[in-house]
Amino acid sequence: MREKLGLIGFGAFGRLTARHLSPWFDIYAHDPAANDGEGHATLTDLATAAACPTVILAVPVEALEATLAAMGPHLAPGALVLDVGSVKVKPARLMDDRLAPGVRVVGTHPLFGPQSGKAGIAGLRIAVCVVRGDRDARRVAAFCRKALKLGVFEVTPEDHDREAAVVQGLTHLIARALLAMEPLPTRMTTASFDRLMEAVDMVRHDSPAVFRAIERDNPFAAEVRERFFTLADQARGALGEG
Amino acid sequence: MREKLGLIGFGAFGRLTARHLSPWFDIYAHDPAANDGEGHATLTDLATAAACPTVILAVPVEALEATLAAMGPHLAPGALVLDVGSVKVKPARLMDDRLAPGVRVVGTHPLFGPQSGKAGIAGLRIAVCVVRGDRDARRVAAFCRKALKLGVFEVTPEDHDREAAVVQGLTHLIARALLAMEPLPTRMTTASFDRLMEAVDMVRHDSPAVFRAIERDNPFAAEVRERFFTLADQARGALGEG
């Protein structure tokens, strides 16, 4: 008999999670806005989902605090709780502060999403962070590698967010500026501009909540943005303007 | 017997040009800094190269004025002169102003370079601009399509530079800012950031002269940069900073 897994949040990422974990778990998903388990999850109430031995939080980072408060009373002793948020320092701190002492906690950030993971996730990558003790983080990493065939980075929440501030923060900032300039050229494009537009197209459907998490909930995002603007300004100044 | 083609400038792009045109022309190349025709061109003096029936100018845009002055006396009546510069308004104006009335002139901008054209140029694209009369521009376009298998955009110099200000100008500005932030993350990257870095890598070896042509010699580049900064600032402002 398969183990039960509670999935809190059944939006785009929650559904991707259910699709790839349903071979291994009976998934009980909770999301007030969902009405179709899509064959990968049984929709249920928060208490039932939160009572599973393993619980994955697939809610926007800005909703995490409220979600932790609501599910806290229903968690089983010794349950394993994971998040999948695009930043790690803040979720790790919230989970460690708010969850009862016996609850096990691991932070994760899958480095893919509904678009990039569309054709399957084997070979894609995930960051796994220790929040409460090495052992659970290592087990989660092993499962990701062996069962899901993901590449795993075992990193601290700080190191994760430092890199994410550049990898995600700048990509999103540049993409949003370019999208605001649409329509963009499509005729006389160069290979390099085509790549730039592919980067933009990959993030253009990210929800405003994802953008806010990347930019506001990453403690390193503001300084990285500042640096980018300063350097872009310098490049402009070298041309005698700005 | 094959027609002679004069190639003024035998840098990275001049050499790419020679490699792809040597099946059709006997190429006589001039460049004070070159010492090896690489099997695709015979190195010669300016006067010999400039006296060919077809002359291609593969010098930096900032060197065009001086080059036109130096080669002018040697051009054959009715010679066809083409440039390959990354901007078109300024070269078209210079060539039309400086070349003797009987000389035929066409502006071109190959939308590829030594990196993107490394594995061959068939299927890549080129912009072709009327400078002195439709007929020569159409013939050049036909040769590019049929002999070189390039996709051709027949556009005015202004339309070209408007698009180039975005396609090249912004790509280069973004790339230069990111390169100044190196070392950049390579571990926990997303597919979108990987694409952004591919765009950066494709232009990182462009010479400072190419960057200057793209940014200074394009009459539309400054307004496009302004707009990008304004929109990026707005995206930042929406986060409550800047």
TrEMBL record, chains A, B:
Keyword Magnesium: no
Keywords: Oxidoreductase
Domain of life of the source: Bacteria
One Gene Ontology term of the molecular function aspect: NAD+ binding
Positions of the Prephenate/arogenate dehydrogenase domain: 3-242
Example GO biological process: tyrosine biosynthetic process
InterPro entries attached to this UniProt entry: 6-PGluconate_DH-like_C_sf, NAD(P)-bd_dom_sf, PDH_C, PDH_N, Preph/Arog_dehydrog, Prephen_DH
SUPFAM superfamilies: 6-phosphogluconate dehydrogenase C-terminal domain-like, NAD(P)-binding Rossmann-fold domains
EC number: 1.3.1.12
Protein name according to UniProt: Prephenate dehydrogenase
A Pfam family reported for this protein in Swiss-Prot or TrEMBL: PDH_N
Keyword set includes Chloroplast: no
